[in-house]
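I hope you will forgive my troubling you with a question about protein structure. The full record is reproduced below for your convenience:

——
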Amino acid sequence: MNGCKGIAIALVVTLACALAPAQDDMLWRWGTLEPAPGTVVAATPDGLVFVGVGGERTVAWSEVRRVDGPGASLVAPFATPSRLLWRAESRLARLDKRGAEPLFEAAADAFAPGAARRAALLGLLECRLARGAILPAVAAWEETLVLPAVAGAQGSSAVDLATGLAPALPPLMPISSSDVAGAPSGASGPLVRLWLRLAEVGAERLWLEAGDLGDVMSWLDEALPASGAGRSFAGAVLLAQSGDALDRAAGRERLGEFASGQPWTAAWVELALARADAIDAARDTSEARHDGLDLAVYRLTGLALARRVMHTLRELAGDNAAVLLERAGRTEDAIALRAALRRAQHSVPTAPAGGASNGDESS
């Protein structure tokens, strides 16, 4: 009997050794001094599948410096694009968006569709927004919506995961001719088409003149899933700016559902409600219209001065407030407001240009 027990224990030990992964690889990650032992299971466009002390996990390519061991051959095809992505993210962390943009672009081109390409596109979106390249930013945003993200990977403020919307790009955002000219070749998805159409009809003119938003609503349906949270929110923002009084009232009511959300959703709501106030004032023939205009300008100015609001929204709100004053014949007030907003923007503390290095090689 004891002999049988010994044989059984030996079999269990042998089986456990056979099932346990041989830790023949050494994973070096950026910013670490010691490698992690384990086994490379696979190298995919989503990341490096690695079994180590904590079990199996997918490591983002921007974290992988190199692998020593048998798994190095699997990692080799990703060596150049992963280093590009690490360099791009390192520059972005140091707020060097001008230097980061071409690196993100090269990394996005180098990776096949997957989580790594999505990470590169999110970085590219952030850099393009920083220099005011709206349509190129929309092209990057659109592609992120169909690419997966690695579970547990660091998110991006450029695209909201819950809605798929880009917080810095509210509906009816004006687009310049230079934006249209700067659109990447081959960018022709429904979101890009939506923004091109808005550029053609004049996004700013639509709400200033309280125009018919029927076409814009149908374009939005093409660009975003009708059942998604993003479509619902963007639709409510547009509806509140409709030329039809009943639609505006319905839009205002629907926006109440989103007012207590994140800072960016609250900013979209405030922008839409201020524009709705401006439309009401323009349609009002009584003396109260002046109070309505002042309320709209007040709300837009408050948004332009808000510290937690993205710069694209602050600039848009400030410009909207000044345009309303100009259209009302209050040119001097508009000039004074623009000057005050410029001074306020210059007084906002800027983040340091440098930052902690993410490794020991030049990025």
Summary: Confidence is low (pLDDT under 50) at residues 1-21, 349-360.
